[in-house]
C-alpha cells in the first residue's frame, strides 16, 4: 500500500488545491474536514469521517493509518494555539510520521503580527512531538490585496511605506505538493512569497490601472486604524490581528522575497498584475 497523505482543510482554498495536485500525481490521499459533505469529490481520494481539530479522538480516528499530515492552520481564534496542539496530539496518537504545517512569514514569539506569534508557538510544539516536520511560512495571500480596498476605493491601514511580498494560493499549493511528494524536506522551513514586495501605494496603483478608477492608499496611525474598524463589532483580539498585520508591513516583516516557489516548483511565482488578470472578480467591488 502506498503511504497515505492526510490533507486537512480540503474544502478550503489551500487544502483543496493541494489535494487536487496530490491526486493528480497519483498519491494516496485522505481528505479531512469538519463537514465531509463540503469536501471535494476527487477520484481515488478517501474521505474521512467528520474531524474537528478540537476533537482529539475524532482527529485520531480520521488520521489512523496515514503516514503524512498536511496541516492547514485553523481559522483565527483566541485559543488558536490550543486548537493546533490538539490536532498535533491527535496526529502523534495516530502514528503520523511527518507533519507539513502551513505557518506564516515572520513567525516569531515577538512578531508584530499577532497571528504570526500563534504560528511560532505551533511550530515549537510540533518540533517537540517526534514526527518529522516541514514548515511552509506563507506570506499574505495575493487575494487579500484587492480586498484591502473598500467600496470607496481607499486602502487604509498603519503600514506606512512598508512592503509585502504577497503570494498566490496556487503557488502555495504547488510548493506544498512538491514538499509532500518529495524527499529531503524534513526539518526545513520555507518562506513562501511572491516575486516582489509591493508597498500599499503600489498595490493601489495597480488596482487603479486594472479598474480605470483611482484607488488610493491612506496611511493611518494605530489609533485611527482601531477607530476605523470599530464598526465591525468584533472582539478586541481580532481587531488587533487586523491592525497588527498592517503594522508588520510597516516594520518590514512582510518584505521578504524568497525563491522557494521557483526553486521547489520549477516555475516563477505569480505577480500581483498576473493575479488580477486571472481573477477579475477580485476587484469587481471597485467598479461602478
From TrEMBL:
InterPro entries recorded: Ergot_Alk_Oxidoreductase (IPR051604), NAD(P)-bd_dom_sf (IPR036291), NmrA-like (IPR008030)
Organism placement in taxonomy: Bacteria, Bacillati, Actinomycetota, Actinomycetes, Kitasatosporales
Domain NmrA-like: start-end pairs: 4-221
Entry EC number(s): 1.6.5.2
CDD domains found in the cross-reference section: TMR_SDR_a
GO molecular function: NAD(P)H dehydrogenase (quinone) activity
Transmembrane in keyword set: no
Record-given protein name: SDR family oxidoreductase
Superkingdom to which the source organism belongs: Bacteria
UniProt entry tagged with the keyword Oxidoreductase: yes
Keywords linked to the UniProt accession: Oxidoreductase
Amino acid at each position: 500500500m502506498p503511504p497515505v497523505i492526510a490533507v486537512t482543510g480540503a474544502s478550503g482554498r489551500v487544502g483543496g488545491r493541494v489535494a487536487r495536485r496530490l491526486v493528480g500525481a497519483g498519491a494516496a490521499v485522505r481528505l479531512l474536514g469538519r463537514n465531509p459533505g463540503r469536501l471535494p469529490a476527487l477520484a481515488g481520494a478517501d474521505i474521512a469521517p467528520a474531524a474537528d481539530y478540537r476533537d482529539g479522538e475524532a482527529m485520531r480516528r480520521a488520521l489512523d493509518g496515514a503516514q503524512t499530515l498536511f496541516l492547514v492552520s485553523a481559522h483565527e481564534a483566541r485559543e488558536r494555539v490550543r486548537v493546533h496542539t490538539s490536532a498535533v496530539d491527535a496526529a502523534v496518537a495516530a502514528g503520523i510520521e511527518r507533519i507539513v504545517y502551513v505557518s506564516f512569514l515572520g513567525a516569531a514569539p515577538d512578531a508584530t503580527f499577532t497571528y504570526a506569534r500563534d504560528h511560532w508557538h505551533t511550530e515549537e510544539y510540533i518540533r517537540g512531538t517526534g514526527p518529522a516536520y516541514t514548515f511552509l511560512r506563507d506570506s499574505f495571500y495575493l487575494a487579500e490585496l484587492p480586498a484591502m480596498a473598500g467600496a470607496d476605493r481607499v486602502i487604509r491601514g498603519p503600514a506606512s511605506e512598508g512592503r509585502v511580498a504577497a503570494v498566490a494560493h496556487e503557488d502555495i499549493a504547488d510548493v506544498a505538493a512538491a514538499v509532500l511528494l518529495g524527499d529531503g524536506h524534513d526539518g526545513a522551513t520555507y518562506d513562501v512569497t511572491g516575486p516582489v514586495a509591493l508597498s500599499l501605494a503600489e498595490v493601489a496603483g495597480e488596482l487603479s490601472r486594472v479598474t480605470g478608477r483611482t484607488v488610493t492608499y491612506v496611511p493611518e496611525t494605530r489609533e485611527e486604524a482601531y477607530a476605523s474598524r470599530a464598526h465591525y463589532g468584533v472582539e478586541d483580539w481580532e481587531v488587533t490581528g487586523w491592525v497588527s498585520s498592517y503594522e508588520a508591513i510597516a516594520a518590514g516583516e512582510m518584505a521578504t522575497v524568497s525563491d522557494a516557489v521557483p526553486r521547489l516548483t520549477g516555475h516563477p511565482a505569480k505577480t500581483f498584475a498576473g493575479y488580477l488578470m486571472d481573477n477579475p472578480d477580485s476587484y469587481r467591488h471597485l467598479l461602478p
